[in-house]
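Tip: read the tokens left to right.
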């Protein structure tokens, strides 16, 4: 690097905060992973639980409204992905976006997205089976709700990790980008 005709060495801190051209792509892939994978988990959970609700609704229409709990909980998983995607996208500064921040954003997006897939899958399978069991035996309703709460917690863990990871990034006022 040459600054005003003088040779200077890039420090380790400056090297770790370099802003390569691909940083924006990597960071935006984190945003994409958060929303796409979170919504994929939400969609699977909704579809799987809806199969049980449809079966139950044709036999016992009176319990359909109480059977919608798994679908509502699956929808919340998609909201977790949306929240993290918005947080990540709004914290990107195109003038000062180092590679380290980009990879943290990718990790945060993958954390919430993959946790959303896991939670959506668990909610869908447990919701389908739980609604069918509830149609046969009403006493299992509370048990079904508890199982769904623990399945939903998986998505919440991803949300928390994504937010914590976002807080670990170097703030744009604390460094100067070294474009490579």
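Filled-in amino acids:
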């Amino acid at each position: 690097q040459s600054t005003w005709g003088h040779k200077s060495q890039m420090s380790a801190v400056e090297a770790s905060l370099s802003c390569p051209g691909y940083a924006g792509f990597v960071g935006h892939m984190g945003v994409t992973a958060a929303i796409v994978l979170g919504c994929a988990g939400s969609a699977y959970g909704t579809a799987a639980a809806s199969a049980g609700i449809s079966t139950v609704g044709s036999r016992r229409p009176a319990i359909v409204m109480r059977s919608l709990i798994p679908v509502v909980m699956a929808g919340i998983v998609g909201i977790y992905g949306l929240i993290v995607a918005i947080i990540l996208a709004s914290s990107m500064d195109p003038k000062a976006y180092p590679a380290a921040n980009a990879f943290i954003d990718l990790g945060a997006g993958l954390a919430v997205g993959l946790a959303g897939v896991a939670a959506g899958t668990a909610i869908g399978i447990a919701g389908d089976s739980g609604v069918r069991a509830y149609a046969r035996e009403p006493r299992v309703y509370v048990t079904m709700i508890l199982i769904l709460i623990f399945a939903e917690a998986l998505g919440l863990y991803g949300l928390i990790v994504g937010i914590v990871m976002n807080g670990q990034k170097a703030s744009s006022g604390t460094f100067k980008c070294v474009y490579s």
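The radius of gyration is 22 Å. The first strand starts at residue 2 and ends at 3.
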